[in-house]
Prior knowledge:
It is a single chain. The protein is α+β, with helices and mostly antiparallel strands and 107 residues long. It has one domain. 31% of the residues lie in helices and 11% in strands. The chain has a two-stranded antiparallel ribbon. Mean pLDDT is 73; it is low at 3-20.
Amino acid sequence: MKKLIVLLASLLALGANAEGEVTKEVFISPGVVSIDINHQGEVIKLQRDQDRDNEISSFYVKTTRGKIQKMHPFAPHAVETVGELDVIEYVKQRSAGDDTILVIDTR
Length: 107
C-alpha cells in the first residue's frame, strides 16, 4: 500500500510538472509577455504566439533564431541592423505620442 501511495504521488507530481511546462508563457523578453500599444486609436496587444510548437514555415526552420544577422547589401551605404526589441521600443515610443518615429514593416 505504501508503494502504491508513493507511486501515485510521483505520477501526480510528474503530471503537474508536465502541465506547468505546457502552460508556460512565451516571453518577448525577460518578464515581458505582452505590450499594449495604441495603433490608429485602437489598443492592441503585441505578443508572441503562445504555442511553443508553432513554426511559421518549414522554409525558415534552418535560419539562425535569436541571432541578429548583419546586413550590408547596399555598399557603400551601411544598413543599421535593429533587433526586435529595438523595434518594439520604437513602437512603444510612437504609441506614447512620439511623432518623430515612423515604423514601416517592409516584409
